[in-house]
What does this fold into?
Amino acid sequence: MEVKTILVSQPQPESDKSPYYGLSKAHKVKIDFRSFIHVEEIYAQEFRKDRVALEEFDSVIFTSRNAVDHYFRMCKDMRVPIRDSVKYFCVSEAIGFYLQKYVIYRKRKIFHGKHTFSDLISVLKKHKDEHFLLPCSDILKQDIPDLLNANELEFTKAVIYKTVCSDLSDLANVNYDMLVFFSPSGIKSLFKNFPDFLQNNTRIAAFGPTTAKAVEDAGLTLNVRAPQPNAPSMSMAIENYLKETKKKK
It folds into this structure.
């Protein structure tokens, strides 16, 4: 069956240069965006139970903008001063620049990888004597602590925000030809909102191996998998699927 409508389980792209818009125009498909999950703060009173003293760490690892925002929020809530001596290690340069919202950008104190956490490991190893703080959500990709442990880097997790399922009840009577997921949490949200969900002719797209596994563990058929050698992004993987579908008509 031809795909005419797609729901991407992420927020609407801020830039009109998003590849999804080009995909929509080129293949004449309707693409909607809706977050299946959202982030909520963990309050200082709850965080204190973990007995993590933020002021004791001189090196902080950031994996996302959410981590940046909630780290500095928690520091403010717990009255922890922002010291100039703290070094920040960011997964990407974009996150490094985002830090300017809270601190003065100094290259000697802000370090970054290229794009993935594995890229950042080589940077962290140059500071292997540090005890790193890892601000994160209650759902942390297991490969992150695994990589830190494998490289004998000392770190402490600080769970300062949580990922929760969004209310999707307004979509109850809306059907899409394809649903696109980027995390196991998205699959969890789907079934929390719609416990009786049946895939039928709905195509499922998943980004990353853990998301793909969550799709299959839920008893769903995975139709589009990304990244692939010929499709490093989800938009490219969907486009390849649309082209193959049209060939079979």
About this structure: The mean pLDDT is 93.
